[in-house]
Amino acid sequence: MSEIIVPRGNLVDRLRDCLTWCQSRNVSDELDPTTAYRSSELAGCAYRALRDDAGPLSDSGFSAFLGWRKKLSKHLPPVSENAVLRELKRPNSLLLCADNQSVIDGACEPVSAGYINENDAPPWDTWVDLGKGSSGTKYLISWVPSWAIKYVDAAISVNCIAMLAWGRYSDGHLEHVDPEEK
Hints:
With 182 residues, the protein is of the alpha+beta class. The chain has helices spanning 11-23, 40-50, 59-73, 81-89, 108-111, 149-158; strands spanning 4-7, 94-98, 127-133, 138-143, 164-170, 173-176. The protein has six helices and six strands, in the order E-H-H-H-H-E-H-E-E-H-E-E. The mean pLDDT is 86.
């Protein structure tokens, strides 16, 4: 049975905030995956979220990141709830990254064309929320645009400790998808 992931906040609202920000970036699959969705406006806050005094991906650092993105997005037209729900139902729209489990061997970066960076992290503009699995594992939940699925699939396939996995949203629950299920 798949592990159930419990996000800290309302996943629909958090994904709406993420999509609203990402929609304003005008990113397409023709851009460099290493820079797509790594905006300079969020870079400093993302770095602090990853390096907070309370540890990697602490609740306080991540909350500050989400708050800053929301503040920067307040003048942007929000993505509709229907669009958010479509993304939640789309296969391979959510990536789960187990916190503090990277071996930082750099294997994911070249096979994902840089979409997943040298620290095994997805682009910070796509970060949705933190979640906790039924096993106690803490996860970074991020949104994956359709054009980036091939890059994430490649990264998942070479990650030697299985810290990257697809998430599936169904019936109000977020599940960790075992690679064999995909």
